Amino acid sequence: MATTQRVFVHDMKNMFGIILGYSTLLLDEMPADDPRRSDVDEIRKAGESALALLNNWNAAVSGEETK
Amino acid sequence: MTDTRPVLLVVDDEPGILRLVDRFAQKIGFDVATAGSGQEALEKLQAGKAAVALVDLRMPDVDGLEVLKRIRAADADCHVILMTGHASIDTAIEAIKHGAMDYLSKPFDFDRLKELLTRVHDEIAQRRTLLMAESRMVKQLEFGGMVGRSGAMLELFDVIRRFAPHVRTALVTGETGTGKELVARALHKSGPRANKKFLTINCSAVVESLFESEVFGHTRGAFTGAVNAKPGLFEAADGGTLFLDEIGELPLSAQAKLLRVIETGEVQRVGGLDSRHVDVRVVAATNRDLRAESASGRFREDLFYRLSVVELSVMPLRERREDIPYLTAAFVRHFAGQFGKSILGPTPAAERMLLTAPWPGNVRELRNVIERICMLTDDRFFTEKETLACLAPPPTRPDPDPTPVPDKPTSHTHLLATAEREHITRVLKGAAGNKKAAAVLLGLSRRALYRKLDRLGLR
Known about the structure:
The complex is a heterodimer. Chain A has helices spanning 2-29, 37-62. Chain A is an all-alpha fold. In chain A, helix 1 packs antiparallel against helix 2 (37-62). In chain B, the strands form 6 sheets. In chain B, strands 2-1-3-4-5 form a 5-stranded parallel sheet, with helices on both faces. In chain B, helix 15 packs across helix 16 and helix 17 (412-430) packs across helix 18 (435-442).
């Protein structure tokens, strides 16, 4: 059970890494006045919230503090 | 070519991460190589080198820690950053212990990654500046083809400058490969005879019976085959300098004749009666202890004293290690130019290896090693691995620790003894312990083999 959980968390974090990474890259490369900035920012914020959820869930299930 | 970008190797089994890091690192000035597994990473490292590797800890075949260990063992100059989606204190400690530069948790903080990569980038730029400065310094440190900034070498250059105008005979002593001929040439070039001839003869390379005719010349018909009269080196070098290399190998009979020429300036050709006057400066060189040789009667004492009026001794390389970086820079510049490559110099780990090698063959050996390295490498910096491959005989395996500064270089004789012991043990094993058979295989008599076994403590 613990292993399945670890693998799941690891793979999820990889996915979040991609979502957050690309949105950060896009924000970096977009001109400051690009109207699509706020859209990308929404993706990034949602990604961060989802990542926080995942971390909380993981901590609750394994009953210990994880980073 | 002047601005090749350092390479970042990214290792992760998630292709999305590879593409992401690729784009990110390109932006801050890295070329990126990617590997989808630990195995692939190790293969890629075999093929080319990376300045830094970003490695996922959890991978199916070879895990990140293993990749870290192997990278550090193969190339101590490659920084390794581990990343993981599941950080734990234990693995973090383990990673740092094995020389990881840092440990990032996923999804990683791009600012942190950027900071790390910028650090690597700056380090390389600093190294480049340092090596270029050393290469420029070489010109100021050069004297007559020799390079040195150690006290011993600066003093030698100074002595050469002061003696060069006056000296008539000189003896240059020093181990093989220290550059005795360069000292002789510098004496010639810094003196009033600079634009006269400088002739060289290696006393050990000429057959005893031919030496006299080579050096003093011979008349027509002096011996069988002497079809024409021929002037010797003394006459040819008249007004200039004659360099007698390996004077310690000169047979006693020739020594007497040489002494006479030096003292009187009169040369008599072999088979001739009349003598000719010559004005030749004689510089002799040897790697033997002529004082001891003359005390024991193997070298004429009077010749020794005549030659050693001015004695210049050249320090072995291991006693002037501070010159190694500049000599390295000079040779790298020379061979990189010759091979048309843009090699700047060693990485820090490779430099440490050069600094601590035993150098029994002195500067000549260093020169040969750098030549081999320059043939091998195509990069701007050459690594520990390439240096190790070119140093002969190979020293003991380098410590994968990031600062492997051995306090004592492995001695040459010790290495030889080890090699001998291993070889004999192998042959004995092959001969099923039969010493007679082993002796035949080794080309030794049985008694010689027993003596060796005793000496190596194998009996």
